[in-house]
Every structure is written in structure tokens, then in C-alpha cells.
Specification:
Elements: H1 2-26, E1 28-36, E2 47-50, E3 56-58, E4 64-69, E5 74-78, E6 85-88, E7 97-99, E8 109-112, E9 115-118, E10 126-130, H2 131-134, E11 153-157, E12 167-171, E13 183-186, E14 189-190, E15 201-207, H3 210-213, E16 224-229, E17 238-250, H4 259-272, H5 281-289, H6 301-305, E18 310-322, E19 326-338, E20 354-369, E21 372-388, H7 403-413, E22 428-430, H8 438-443, E23 446-464, E24 472-491, E25 496-503, E26 509-515, E27 525-548, E28 551-566, E29 572-585, E30 589-600, E31 609-620, E32 632-646, E33 659-664, E34 675-681, E35 690-703, E36 707-723, E37 742-763, E38 766-783, E39 806-809, E40 812-815, H9 819-823, E41 827-828, E42 840-842, E43 850-851, E44 857-862, E45 867-877, E46 880-890, E47 893-895, H10 919-923, E48 948-950, E49 953-967, E50 970-986, E51 1006-1016
Parallel strand pairs: 1-7, 13-16, 22-25, 41-43
Antiparallel strand pairs: 1-4, 2-3, 2-5, 5-6, 8-9, 10-15, 11-12, 13-14, 15-16, 17-18, 17-51, 18-19, 19-20, 20-21, 21-23, 23-24, 24-27, 25-26, 27-28, 28-29, 29-30, 30-31, 31-32, 32-35, 33-34, 35-36, 36-37, 37-38, 38-45, 39-44, 40-42, 45-46, 46-49, 47-48, 49-50, 50-51
Helix pairs in contact: 4-5
Length: about 1000
């Protein structure tokens, strides 16, 4: 019996082993690539499943997949917007697929206001980019990554400070003197863009014309930016991990001259003014030879206080997936950005500039039953920004002056012949005329720390109402956001000392340090403040979408109400109804009507609501039977006209009410206790929103199977612009500052955009994509209620007829060469000392023999770029990929003045002052790059055609190189290097300033180099 059992178990084990062996042998690796059937481009993210099992995978960036299957298994391939396919393995180990677009799905869709449409049916001016392009930039601010990527969008970064890297966004230039920034909606709700993690963004879309923005009514005149976040799509759960580490450095920083050059230039300036030398020949030689560094130091203050490189790290983890009932996308991110100023070691506090940001997002979609679905979006960030305390007037908030302003001012003001940074006793060294030495501001004043947190929540449900009529649905969305800010200020005073050099009886100099003032070293004094905001939004939709043979009809009716509360202020309220109706016939003819009817509490009762309609149409010419143009695959024309509003008309609220107070004292104290009624501002009971009438004509052409050309021409006339009157009679009885602003301004804005897209697959392993665009927008102030200057003014207006931000100044004719030339020229009465050889000779435009304010003329272009352009290229060859973005602006001029540019009134000199005007240089015909140096206020250092300079630039904005590695247990691994602001070409004669940055003192823009790895499981 035992032998029989032993034989039985042996046979059982052999059978089991044989079965397992057969099964193991039948599971083989099946690989292949999934391509778009039309373009031959790979489809990353396509789902590959073994039918009837839970085994599955998704394609990588190049469309490749690998999955284990038996010879008899069937592979199911699916991808959003494409027809699903099935194919039996049948013993093969390599199977490629080409997927056809599914016209019944929203394959090529674009995001529009409060919805989405097929790309072919869109009649408005819309541009968008995807997350792939956004992630190519290592920028800490998401708004920075948009520069040069979307036609019609101008992005201007004015500071690079961690947590304060402020970026201005404009759509189609400027159409008003009031608020000009577009509104930003994240998943349909008005929210911030700046602090979002690029990994959680699916796409960014800008709406530019009346057709696409009229649905926003009183808020849409400046354009709209729509941000769509990612959601779960793949039936196979995906885990993505990204880690990126890099360094950052200033793109440009003004560099003062060294000690020898400073002393030489100070002597030159004093001699020009007849004051004699400030430094002896012995001192000059000592500065030059560095023979006595204690008495004749040469301190590189910028090198001493500015890091060559500062660190930056970013980590991201996200998980996503989808089943029949639930779809999910969960993302967490961390960003650390160090500051570029060197701080003192061994302090008991940290005064460095730095930022830590934590992001979180969870998007959940639930299919409750066949007709009801719901979603819940939760997101937020916590951000901690650190900076030196600097001086009491600075603020680390998003408004106000940054501590970096004072520190940079100190670096630029401190001459190189000042020793430092500390004296032998450890006190901070300064000079008599410099109250705030940069080393002390950076290290010895304490620190500021601001913690910002923002939590956003959106819940919505959508019910199909096919039981009423097919294609009808209803949707409700509720959102609630909170934002808190906590400011911690830890300030202290410190000891400053000045070096003193005295001659002694023995002839040897005595060098010692004395106190700058009655400074004492104090402990940290802690104080703080808090701010709070809340935002609520409710939306109720009624949607309809139906196709009848060749007719496609859709409709939207939306009710929206939102409330924003900022600290103790009264709420900001917005309420309204919006609608959209679209009609398409035979996929060739398209008509759309959009309208918004909404209002704001900014305006008086009975005058709060407005109606903003727009109509648009399109014709897909290439679908006509008569169309037979070889090489042109698609031709579409479209046009729109409508009006949109802007209720953001200034910082003051409730201007329809009188601002009257009771105060004490004054010349007419007729009330009790010596009080009187003070009129701060009279009311404007007829206050209204701005109204923009917009026209847009567009052309879209696909040709040669690889190119797409999009051309838009637009015109906008905006009236009702709120501004102060300038033509009030002086005898009106009231001062002009109490008169209310009124809706009288008129601005016209015209321009065009040209976009060329290219994509071509030369083989499954090699494809190229490209996008190039140029956008141009010029405005003109048609009416500004500006008083006409007298007839003897060369130019009698300063605003009317000119662009917003137009530069004005004196026209430089030449340098004065001799006193005789000055005596025989028009008298220059422009401020500063009398004209001397080497000063500018300005043109007498009105020919009255005097150059004064009557000769001021428009110079150059506006301070806002009129032209923006971008060129993006990307290519993939096997496992390598490369992308580059070149971005720039043109038709922009800025007035460069003050530190880093001017010489008189400043305590330091810079490279351009080394070739200033001298009689010797002029006689020898040597290059002259600056007017005569002076210690007095100079008539040359005014707004003029020399200092108003072309700020156009071309920049290698981004460059990224990546390589994909096949690693066991990892679906996809990619190593990459990228950079930001790598090379800049511009026309500025001095490279002290980045042409994009704010003109003046601000934290310089950053150049970033990063290494990263992305893992997909």
C-alpha cells in the first residue's frame, strides 16, 4: 500500500511539474509598438490587456510595450480617441499595431470655457499645450514654463527670488490701463496657477477672442487661461516617480568696477567738476598692485555675497488608474529652492533666501450607475519661504518690497575700496554715506519666514437625462478653497564700524575702526501677522448634445455664483448666467453663439449686470466635393465677433458711494468739538465695467501631411475704461484728488498671430515635432481725457494717440565737444547742472532756442513687448530624445537708470563708465559709451534716447536631453538633463541687467541646470 501511495504522489508531483513547465513555457514575452495609423507617430500611454485576464501594461513614450502571453491569448489594445482592436498572439513574439482615430469619440478635443469640443468644430481662437511640454522646464514657477509656448500669450518674469518669482501674463497684449491679466481657471474654477506642480497638469489652454471668452461675461475681456489637471485613464495602475536635482545661478548681475578703476573714475568725476583728485598717485598704484590690502583693499562685494551656484531639488510621486466604477489620480510633490546669496556660518538663525513647497492632488471619478457619475478633486500646497529680515519696510509677501532690494542696493553701492566684510572685532564694516551695508542686511538683521497654505476642494455630480430627451444632462459643482498666510518676523540690530586711517607723528599710518553710530547688538525680537482668504463657487449646468443625421447640436446653460473673502473685507461677489449653443452641418459648416449675463457688487444697484454676447462661424472648405487641391489636406476658415467685460477696474471698491468722513481740525471746523466734514472722494453713481468689442478672423491649413498653419488676425476696441478726468476746470471748487474716476477711456488693440506646427515620423524609431509662432499686438489710446498742451510743445499729448507705456524723453543729438558749441546751441534747461563739454546735446524740437520739457518726444516702443515669438523642436530616435525651446520678444523699450547705469548721485561705478566722455577720448576718436562723469546731478542722466534702450531679446529658454533604459521590474526608466534660461541674445550695450527682468533693483532671474530620473511602474 505504501508503495502504491509513494508511486501515486510521485506521479502527481511529476504531473504538476510537467503542467507548470508547459504553462511556463507557453507564457512568452510579446513585444511591439503602437502607432497612430495616420501619422505613424507612437502612442504613449495606450493600454495593452490580455483578454479575460488581469495582465496588462501601457506603452512607453515611444509607443513600445512588453507583456507576457500564451500562444492562444488575445491582446486588446485601447487608447482614448482611437478604435480599440483585438488580435490573437498565435505564437508570435512581436506584434505591432496601428490605431485608427474614432470620430465618435472626443479624439481631438480642446478645452473651452466650462466644457470641451471637437477640435474640428471650434470656431474661436484657442491655443493649448500638454503636460509633456511643461515638464521640460525645471522652473519652480509654472507660469514661467509658459513663456514661448503659446501664440498670443506673453509671459514676463520680473524676479527670480524663491517664492517670489513673479510672472506677468498677458493675452494679446494690453487693452486697458487697469487690470490686464487674464483670469485663470483650474478645472473650471478660478484659482492660482503659480504654485501648481507641473506633473499634475494635463493641459493649459488660452482663450483669446470674444467667441471663446464671452461665456465669462464681465470677467473675460483680458482673455482666459484654462488649466486641466490629470485624471485616471489606464486600466492598468500606473506609478510614476520623478527625482530632479540641479543648480541655479543668476543670468546677470551688475558688476561694479574694482578698487583701482573706482579710484580712477572718482578722480575723473571730481576733476570734471574742478574739485581735484580724491586719490593720490600713490593710492592709485597701491590699489592697482594690491601692495597694502589693509589700507588699500580691493573687495569684490558681489563675489563675497553671491553664490556661484545654489541648489534646487524636485521630487514627485503619482499613482493613477481606472476601472469601470472608479478612476483615480493621486499626486504628491516636493520642491526645494535655495537662495543665491552667501550667508554667514555659525549664526543661531538662518537668514538665507530659500523655499520649500509641498503639493498634493487627488482627483477621483466615480461611475455610480449607468446615468449618474460624480467626482471629487482635492488639492493644496504648503509653502515656506525664508529670507533675511533686511529692513523694516521690506515684506516677504507677494506684494511690497523684497529684502533682496536693499541687499542688492548695498552690493551695488559699496565701492571695492572699502574693507570688509567685518572688522577685527567682528562688527560689520561700512562707510559714512552707507547706512545699510549689504553684509549686515543679509546676515545680521535677523530673518523673515512666511508660511502659505492653500486647500482647494471641488465636488460635482452629473446626471444623464435621456429619459426626458436623449443627449440631455445636468451637472452641479461646488467648490470651497481656503488660503492662509503666517508671517514670522525675527529682527535685531547689529554693530557697524568704519575704518579710520590717521597720520601719526612717526609718519606711519594708524588704522583702527570706530562705531558708525550708537549701535548695540540685540537678541532677536519676534513678531508676526496673519492673513486669511476663503473662496466658494457654485455652478449648475444643463447640457445638451445630439446628432441628427448630418446635424450636430449642442447647448449649455450655466448658473454660477462665487464669493471671495479676504481678511476682514466685505466679500467680493459674482453671480450670473452663461450660455452656449453650437450647430454643425455635415461636419463642414459651424455656427456658435456664446453669451454671459452677470454682474458684480462693485457697481451700484440697478447697474450691476451686463449682457455680453458673441457669435462665430466656421467653414471646413476642404470637405466640399469641389475641393481637389493637391498637397492641402485640410482648409478651414473661421471668424468671430462679440463683446466681453472687465470688472477689475482698480484697487478701490464701491466707487459708486461717497467717501466722506468726519475729522478734527481744519480751516472750517464748524461741527462740535472742532470737527469738520472731509470729502475724500465723491461717488460715481454711473460706474460701469469696461467693454471690449472684439473681432477675430482665422485660417487653418494642413498641408503636405506633416504641416499645420494657423493664422489669426484680430481687432479690439475697449471703451468705458475707468480713469481720472484730466480736463476739469480749475475753478470747479474741489481738488482733483476727490473727483471720482469715470468710464471715459478708449483703447484700440490690433494684431495677428501666425503658428506653424510640424510632425513627421520618419520611422517607428525616429520622429520630429516642431512649433514656431509669432504674435504681434499694438494698442493705441484713442481717448484719455488728457488736456492738450500749449502750441509751443513739440508733442502736445503724452497719452492720447500713443501706446500704453509709451516712453517719452529728450532726443540726444550728440555730445557737446566744446564750450563754444554750448554757447552757440539752444540753452539746455532739463535739470542738473549747466551744460558742459561731454554732456548730451538735446534736439530743440520746437525750435524756440531752448531745450526744456516742451521738447520731450515719444522715444522707441512701449515698455510692454508688442511682439512675442517661440520656436520649439523635439525629436526622438530610438531611446534618445531631445527638445529645445527658443523664446523672445521684440518692439519693447525700457528706461535704464539708477544703480548699474547712472554715475552722478551714485556711490559706485560700473563697466560702461570706464569709457565715458573725456576730451582726450573725443579728440582721439575713441569709442565713447557714456556721457561726462560728474559728482553733481547731470543733465545727461535723464529720460532720453540714450538711456531708453531696446529691451528685445532672444533666449534659449529650455533644452532637454533624455535617454530611456530598459530595466527589469520597471515599465519605463528615463534619465534626462535640462536647463532654463541658458543663453540670451539682446541689444543692451551693458550686460548688467537681464532684458526680461524689471528695470531696477529686483532679485535677478535664474539660470538652472538639472539632472533627473523618471521611473514608471
Amino acid at each position: 500500500m505504501r508503495k502504491k501511495l509513494t508511486k501515486f504522489y510521485l506521479m502527481f508531483l511529476l504531473s504538476a511539474f510537467w503542467c507548470c513547465s508547459i504553462y511556463a513555457q507557453s507564457l512568452t514575452d510579446v513585444q511591439g509598438v503602437i502607432l497612430d495609423a495616420k501619422s505613424n507617430l507612437p502612442l504613449p500611454g495606450a493600454t495593452v490587456m490580455v483578454k479575460g485576464t488581469s495582465r496588462g501594461t501601457v506603452t512607453d513614450f515611444d509607443g513600445n510595450y512588453s507583456i507576457k502571453a500564451t500562444s492562444n491569448d488575445v491582446l486588446q489594445i485601447s487608447f482614448i480617441g482611437y478604435k480599440s482592436v483585438e488580435e490573437e498572439v498565435n505564437g508570435r513574439i512581436k506584434i505591432d499595431f496601428k490605431l485608427e482615430e474614432d470620430s465618435e469619440q472626443l479624439s481631438e478635443i480642446v478645452i473651452v470655457g466650462f466644457g470641451e469640443q471637437k477640435k474640428a468644430t471650434v470656431t474661436g481662437a484657442i491655443s493649448s499645450i500638454s503636460t509633456k511640454e511643461l515638464k521640460q522646464s525645471p522652473a519652480a514657477n509654472l507660469a514661467v514654463t509658459l513663456a514661448g509656448r503659446l501664440p498670443g500669450l506673453t509671459s514676463i518674469q520680473t524676479s527670480g527670488e524663491p517664492g517670489r518669482d513673479l510672472t506677468q501674463l498677458f493675452i494679446r497684449g494690453q487693452g486697458t490701463i487697469n487690470a490686464r491679466s487674464p483670469i485663470i481657471l483650474v478645472d473650471g474654477v478660478e484659482r492660482e496657477l503659480t504654485y501648481m506642480d507641473p506633473n499634475e497638469v494635463e493641459s493649459v489652454t488660452i482663450l483669446k477672442d470674444a467667441s471663446s471668452t464671452a461665456i465669462f461675461g464681465v470677467r473675460g475681456a483680458n482673455g482666459v487661461i484654462l488649466v486641466t489637471t490629470k485624471r485616471g485613464t489606464s486600466e492598468v495602475p500606473e506609478v510614476n516617480v520623478s527625482m530632479e536635482s540641479g543648480v541655479q545661478t543668476f543670468t546677470r548681475l551688475p558688476q561694479p568696477v574694482n578698487a583701482y578703476e573706482f579710484a580712477t573714475l572718482r578722480n575723473l568725476a571730481q576733476n570734471n567738476d574742478g574739485l581735484g583728485n580724491a586719490y593720490s598717485a600713490e593710492a592709485l598704484e597701491a590699489y592697482k598692485s594690491h601692495s597694502d590690502p589693509e589700507k588699500y583693499p580691493d573687495t569684490d562685494w558681489a563675489g563675497l555675497l553671491v553664490e556661484d551656484f545654489a541648489p534646487q531639488q524636485r521630487i514627485n510621486l503619482n499613482v493613477s488608474g481606472a476601472s469601470k466604477a472608479v478612476k483615480y489620480y493621486i499626486n504628491a510633490g516636493y520642491l526645494n529652492q535655495g537662495g543665491s546669496f552667501k550667508t554667514e556660518k555659525d549664526l543661531n538663525y538662518d537668514p538665507s533666501f530659500k523655499l520649500d513647497r509641498y503639493n498634493f492632488r487627488s482627483n477621483i471619478d466615480m461611475q455610480i450607475n449607468n446615468n449618474l457619475k460624480a467626482f471629487l478633486n482635492l488639492a493644496g500646497y504648503v509653502e515656506k519661504q525664508n529670507a533675511p529680515f533686511s529692513v523694516g519696510t521690506a515684506s516677504t509677501g507677494q506684494g511690497g518690497a523684497s529684502p533682496s532690494l536693499n541687499i542688492l542696493a548695498g552690493i551695488l553701492d559699496m565701492p571695492s575700496n572699502v574693507p570688509g566684510p567685518v572688522s577685527p572685532s567682528g562688527a560689520v564694516v561700512t562707510v559714512n554715506d552707507l547706512v545699510n551695508p549689504p553684509y549686515g542686511l543679509l546676515n545680521r538683521t535677523g530673518y523673515r519666514q512666511q508660511t502659505r497654505n492653500n486647500t482647494t476642494a471641488t465636488f460635482g455630480m452629473e446626471q444623464q437625462l435621456d429619459f426626458i430627451t436623449k443627449g440631455l444632462s445636468a451637472k452641479a459643482v461646488m467648490s470651497f478653497d481656503t488660503k492662509g498666510t503666517n508671517n514670522l518676523n525675527a529682527s535685531k540690530s547689529y554693530i557697524r564700524e568704519i575704518q579710520v586711517i590717521d597720520k601719526t607723528a612717526s609718519g606711519r599710518d594708524s588704522i583702527y575702526y570706530r562705531n558708525f553710530s550708537d549701535d548695540v547688538e540685540t537678541p532677536l525680537n519676534i513678531s508676526g501677522s496673519r492673513a486669511f482668504q476663503s473662496f466658494s463657487n457654485f455652478q449648475a449646468y444643463l447640457n445638451y448634445k445630439r446628432a441628427f443625421n448630418k446635424h450636430d447640436v449642442s447647448g449649455l446653460l450655466l448658473f454660477q455664483q462665487q464669493k471671495e473673502i479676504i481678511n476682514e473685507q466685505l466679500p467680493y461677489n459674482l453671480i450670473g448666467v452663461s450660455s452656449r449653443v453650437t450647430y454643425a452641418y455635415d461636419d463642414k459648416y459651424f455656427v456658435e453663439f456664446n453669451a454671459g449675463y452677470n454682474g458684480s457688487e462693485q457697481f451700484a444697484p440697478g447697474n450691476r449686470f451686463g449682457f455680453f454676447p458673441a457669435v462665430s462661424g466656421g467653414w471646413l472648405v476642404s470637405k466640399e466635393n469641389f475641393w481637389n487641391v493637391k498637397g492641402i489636406d485640410r482648409l478651414k476658415v473661421r471668424g468671430s465677433y462679440g463683446k466681453v467685460g472687465n470688472d477689475r477696474i482698480g484697487n478701490d471698491r464701491f466707487l459708486y458711494l461717497d467717501d466722506i468722513s468726519v475729522s478734527g481740525g481744519g480751516y472750517s471746523s464748524s461741527l462740535d468739538q472742532g470737527r469738520r466734514i472731509a470729502i475724500n472722494q465723491l461717488r460715481n453713481g454711473e460706474l460701469q465695467w469696461e467693454v471690449a468689442n472684439k473681432i477675430n478672423i482665422g485660417l487653418e491649413v494642413d498641408f503636405l501631411k506633416s504641416f499645420e498653419l494657423i493664422v489669426d488676425v484680430f481687432s479690439e476696441k475697449r471703451d468705458n475704461i475707468l480713469r481720472n478726468r484730466g480736463t476739469i476746470p480749475i475753478l470747479n471748487g474741489l481738488s482733483t484728488n476727490v473727483l471720482p474716476p469715470v468710464n471715459i477711456g478708449v483703447v484700440e488693440n490690433k494684431g495677428f498671430e501666425v503658428e506653424l506646427n510640424y510632425k513627421k515620423a520618419f520611422s517607428p524609431d525616429f520622429f520630429v515635432r516642431g512649433r514656431a509662432f509669432v504674435g504681434y499686438a499694438r494698442n493705441e489710446q484713442k481717448f484719455a481725457d488728457e488736456p492738450l498742451l500749449p502750441e509751443d510743445y513739440a508733442y502736445r499729448y503724452r497719452q492720447t494717440g500713443y501706446r500704453i507705456g509709451q516712453n517719452f524723453g529728450y532726443i540726444v543729438e550728440k555730445y557737446f565737444d566744446t564750450q563754444e558749441e554750448i554757447d552757440n546751441s539752444p540753452v539746455q534747461i532739463v535739470g542738473g547742472h549747466e551744460s558742459r563739454p561731454g554732456d548730451f546735446k538735446y534736439k530743440d524740437l520746437n525750435e524756440d532756442g531752448i531745450v526744456d520739457q516742451k521738447d520731450i518726444a515719444p522715444i522707441g516702443a512701449s515698455t510692454m513687448p508688442e511682439t512675442s515669438f517661440g520656436l520649439g523642436l523635439s525629436t526622438t530616435y530610438k531611446n534618445f530624445d531631445l527638445s529645445a525651446l527658443v523664446q523672445g520678444v521684440a518692439n519693447v523699450d525700457k528706461f535704464y537708470s539708477g544703480r548699474g547705469t547712472f554715475a552722478s548721485g551714485q556711490t559706485n561705478y560700473f563697466d560702461q563708465h570706464l569709457t565715458s566722455w573725456t576730451q582726450e577720448r573725443a579728440d582721439n576718436g575713441e569709442p565713447i559709451n557714456f556721457p561726462r562723469l560728474s559728482t553733481e546731478p547731470s543733465p545727461s542722466e535723464k529720460e532720453n534716447s540714450f538711456f531708453i534702450r531696446d529691451a528685445s531679446y532672444v533666449r534659449l529658454k529650455n533644452l532637454e536631453i533624455g535617454y530611456r533604459i530598459q530595466l527589469k521590474g520597471v515599465a519605463n526608466m528615463r534619465l534626462y538633463m535640462n536647463g532654463l534660461n541658458l543663453i540670451t541674445w539682446d541689444k543692451l550695450p551693458s550686460k548688467n541687467y537681464d532684458p526680461e527682468a524689471a528695470n531696477g533693483l529686483s532679485y535677478p532671474l535664474l539660470k538652472v541646470y538639472s539632472l533627473g530620473v523618471n521611473l514608471k511602474f
